[in-house]
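User: My instructor asked us to take a sequence, write out its structure as tokens, and then describe one feature of it. I'm not sure where to start. Here is the sequence I was given:
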Amino acid sequence: MTAPVPHSQSLAAPAGDTPDGVDLDQDGRTDLAWPQTLGQRGEDAYGSGAFGASRDGGRRRHNGLDLVAPVGAPIRAPISGIVTRVGQAYAGEPELQFVEITSPTTRYSARVFYVGSSRAPGAQVTAGEIIGRAQDLGRRYASGMTNHVHVEFANHRGAVLDPLAVLPASPRSADT
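Assistant: Let's start with the prediction itself. The structure tokens for your sequence are:
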């Protein structure tokens, strides 16, 4: 395994900083924040955690960003909004979950995989607020994969977005 890849600059133009992330609409509340601040999952036995990385021998692309997260680490909401779904990351495997949050402010939805959710559908969350704990990927994958959470963003039309283009330019180091 290699060391985590440092975060790159965001393409989003933040409107203003808050202690936990970025306030896009200048209402004093955080709209976007990093779910985990330990860096991007680098190249390991299962490939790269980068957005757009090759999967299945090049037949598909990685639609999210993998962020290093030790088992049990606190995971934060990447956007403010409403928890719209909590579900299984893989059918028939209830031990690995995802949380989906939809934001009326940004009109984005975000899904964070491999997080044991502490929030139920319908709950309001603020970006940067703890939504659960990182789960153990060792149950599904043999040794060689860096434990992480997988973060996906989509716009209101459902188009997949590069999380590095959406999230603040640099992660806050509030959690480990």
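For the description part of your assignment, you could build on this observation: The domain at 54-166 is CATH 2.70.70.10 (Glucose Permease (Domain IIA)). Try explaining in your own words what that tells you about the chain.
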